[in-house]
Amino acid sequence: MELSAFVPDFTDVYRLRRPKALEKLLHRLRWLVPAREPVPRSRVNRAYLLSRLYAYRDEHGKPVSANTLRRVHSAWSVFFDYLTERGVFEDNPMLRVKAPKPPNHRSSGTSWPR
Description:
Elements (H helix, E strand, L loop, with lengths): L6 H11 L4 H11 L13 H9 L11 H20 L29
Helix pairs in contact: 1-2, 2-4
């Protein structure tokens, strides 16, 4: 079972709930499930998700902040919830991937590494 087949239906549902956020969601999903590269269900495991998450780049190919990675993690979690509800997965594989920690703003003023 190939995951990109589920992206159009998911985005149709998402569009109804958060139309202004759809463009960012699509970029985040296509980083995980490229339109022209098959991603079989069997490839999705903790190692694959971690490697894709920490390799994530913005629309311009630049590294992103920890907060953006948290948003990407969240978007992927919602996508896998959708797939789980449709019986593609027994449980959400993102549950095995911890979201990046937010920066500690109370620290000595150092910024989060990129």
